[in-house]
Amino acid sequence: MKRILLVDDHPIMRHGLAQLISLEPDLEVCAQAGSCTEGLAAMNLHKPDLAVVDLTLPDRHGLELIKDIRALHPSTQTIVLSMHDEHMYAERALRAGARGYVMKETAAEKLITAVRRVLKGGIYVSEAMASTLMEQATGQRTKPGSGVDQLTDRELEVLEWIGKGIASKNIAEALGISVRTVEAHRAHLKDKLGLPDGPSLVKYAVQWAEGRTGTTYAGAAVTTDAASRSCEQ
């Protein structure tokens, strides 16, 4: 019996995943968690064979949890289950230590297949993503050199927080870094994204976050002018 940890901040999603996994005779959900902190605690307590991790978590980014799992529990495999486009995050997730990436919209059809492949030592991504990675590895396709694709994992994380309308001070507290470091990330973001000033960065971040998820973040349910003021806070 293989033991699986579910890390997702939506209880209904965790319940649905647990129900799906419970139909398999050789798989069981040994624990559930709604944040990175809870996820690490569950890892220490239950020692699962595999963790299914969402990227959007309330305390830290899911990529950071995956890195922690690889460092602290190297025998536990991880799969990302996310609503975010795999072409944006799958390669980042694999670099962080994940062995698979499944979009939430295909979870009912693909998750069990991904779990079994990863538990057997393989890697799971969609056929389209596998082709993209192979073309990059063989030099048939070059990696994007502009836009969000060129951001580091930390810069992308900061961009997400800005897109939620969060001020630099609060971003620093959430990520455990200094305000000066956050401001340095803001400067790098403006440079890499070709944006002239702070308000433009905030507007870009909010629009990018809304377009990426198809919904408006609760923290970003403000006008662009109101969000722009956060760049000075």
Can you walk through the features of this model?
This protein has 233 residues and is an alpha/beta fold. It folds into two domains: 2-137, 3-Layer(aba) Sandwich (Rossmann fold), CATH 3.40.50; 147-232, Arc Repressor Mutant, subunit A (Orthogonal Bundle), CATH 1.10.10. Helices cover 53% and strands 12% of the residues. It contains eleven helices and five strands. It has helices at residues 11-22, 36-46, 62-72, 86-96, 107-119, 127-137, 153-163, 168-175, 179-193, 198-213, 224-228; strands at 2-7, 27-33, 50-53, 77-82, 100-103. It has a five-stranded parallel sheet with strand order 2-1-3-4-5, sandwiched between helices. Helix 1 links the parallel strand 1 (2-7) and strand 2 (27-33). Helix 2 (36-46) runs parallel beside helix 3 and helix 7 (153-163) crosses helix 9 (179-193). The chain is globular and about 55 Å long. Mean pLDDT is 86; it is low at 213-233.
